[in-house]
Amino acid sequence: MPPPLPPPSPEAQLWFLTKLQRLFGEGDFTATYKFALLISLADLAVELGADDGSELILANRQIGERFIALYWQHSLPYSSGHPSSAPAVLVQNNGAQAAVVSAISTFRANCAATSPQAAARQPGFRALVSVVTSTVSAQPLNYLQNFGGGTDEFLYERAGAGKVRLKPGVAYCLRRFYPLVQQLARTHWIDHIKQNSRNQSILGAADDLEDFLFSSSRQSLQVMAAGLRKLDGTKCFYCGNAVSTADVDHYIPFSLYPRDLAHNLVLAHPSCNRSKSDTLAALPHLERWLERLHDKGDALAEIGSAAGFQTDRLVTRQVGAWAYTSALSGRSKAWLKANYYTSIDDSYATCFD
Ligand SMILES: [Zn+2]
Question: Do 209 and 242 reside in the same domain of the chain?
Fold first, then answer.
């Protein structure tokens, strides 16, 4: 294996952000696929990339699977709850419905699975992944890097059959600027759906579109809560005190990494959860979290799988390492308890060694 490349220089990082800004400003977005592709690439960079400037090879199929996860909820009818609007599947393309949404809707109509994780065990899922992967390969992967009247392969290039190669420094920048990439892609995605005139009669005056498109399923969180009570007892992960009505909290905040990873979920007092909010938890919590990941990894996978969540212990650990490393370079504070924060130092990163 070649030695890892150094991280991109500050100038190269700025250049990356400038290109990204141009992509959003000058790109042509007939469907919502390009937003999904950017989110997928950023997710995979966090989960599989390293904190150096190395390139990263991704299988188109991995991106296709991520598309299914992103569009899974979108393939159900959206209901605003207002009498003036009619529930229907939101249209994600300026012409006919986006092929990925139609393929998932059709698959779901013939299968009882309520999550992509449960669906993966069903016959027909492999065929769905193939269809979606072909669409991703023929459409957004071909067109994402066309903007400003030309093609600028600043993110990736094709790397043989069924693969793309993120160029040196790109995985680093996607990890470094992950929240920004997410937020940009989501905001544009929501706008795209709102601005499609065919969605007007479905949306009415609804303002919970972001929730519908990107939040965890409440039902899944309830299943998870019941499992966690049995596994961890009815106590708060953070303060250790007994809890009657517990929240299921994303240990690495959902605002930092908006995917439901079973191993990232803990029970907490609503008050502890609110106080911690979008902050990373301090060292004693991190040590306990890593210990739990190690000791209860299999049990958590089992509970998570029943709830329909992603259940990869190592991926969760990688996400944790990435989150604390980013916080260290951004000089963020960590939450210890209500109104009490501490600085994140190198000792946090060594927990992951
Ligand atoms: Zn508590």
Answer: no
Ligand 1 centroid – CA 269 distance (Å): 4
Residue that finishes a domain, picked among 214, 246, 268: 214
Distance 54 CA to ligand 1 centre (A): 41
Ligand 1 center–CA 245 separation, angstroms: 11
- Name the residue range of residue 287's domain: 218-350
Cβ contact 255:283 at 8 Å: no
Domain count, the chain: 2
* 164 DSSP assignment: E
Question: In this structure, are residues 23 and 145 in contact, taking their beta carbons and an 8 Å threshold?
Answer: yes
* Residue 353: predicted pLDDT: 87
347 Cα: distance to centroid of ligand 1 (angstroms): 24
Return the pLDDT at 298.
96
Q: Which two tokens stand for residue 42?
A: 């950023």
Q: How high is the pLDDT of residue 86?
A: 83
Report the chain (353 residues): mean pLDDT per 10 consecutive residues: 87 96 94 97 96 96 97 90 84 94 94 88 94 98 95 96 97 95 95 93 82 85 94 96 94 90 96 96 98 96 91 93 91 94 94 91
Whether the CB-CB separation of 107 and 101 falls below 8 Å is answered with no
Per-chain residues with Cβ under 5 A from ion ligand 1: 236, 238-239, 269, 272
pTM higher than 0.85 for the full model?
Answer: yes
Distance 229 CA to ligand 1 centre (A): 14
DSSP state of 147: E
Domain end point (choices 168, 189, 214):
214
